[in-house]
Amino acid sequence: MRLKVIKRGPNDLEIEIEGEGHTFCNVLRKELYEDKAVVYAGYTIDHPLVGIPRFYVRTDGSESPEEALLKAAQRIAEKAREFREQFKEAVRGYREKRE
């Protein structure tokens, strides 16, 4: 993944997220909308096979777009850790039942 800032305003940010697609962008967009300071979060991909996603974030000014993105990334990472632990436990339980 490679990030490039395209445009920066007082309450808005536009970045390219090279190496990612709809899956990651949708997770990020959904998580950003959990933040009350986020007014808009969305992305476009010009071409489904070779396009680089352009991601847009706008806040109400109570926090910067960068802060909102960092907080969303932290929440996504925590959810991924929780999933990993629960998955490992489920696999362990399944194996124990079969033995």
Topology, pairings included?
Layout: E1 2-8, E2 12-18, H1 22-32, E3 38-44, E4 54-59, H2 65-98
Antiparallel strand pairs: 1-2, 2-4, 3-4
Helix pairs in contact: 1-2
What are the main properties of this structure?
45% helix; 99 residues; 27% strand; alpha+beta; single chain; 4-stranded antiparallel beta sheet; 2 helices
Characterise this structure.
By secondary structure, this protein is of the alpha+beta class. Helices cover 45% and strands 27% of the residues. The protein is built from two helices and four strands. The chain has helices spanning 22-32, 65-98; strands spanning 2-8, 12-18, 38-44, 54-59. Strands 1-2-4-3 form a four-stranded antiparallel β-sheet. β1 (2-8) and β2 (12-18) form a beta hairpin. The radius of gyration is 17 Å and the shape is elongated. The model has no long low-confidence stretch (mean pLDDT 95).
Largest sheet: 4 strands, antiparallel
Distance between the termini: 41 Å
Shape: elongated
Report the average pLDDT across residues: 95
Radius of gyration: 17 Å
Give the helix tally.
2
In total, the number of strands is 4
Order of helices and strands: EEHEEH
Strand content: 25-35%
Low-confidence stretches: none
Structural class: alpha+beta
How are the strands ordered across the major sheet? 1-2-4-3
Helix content: 40-55%
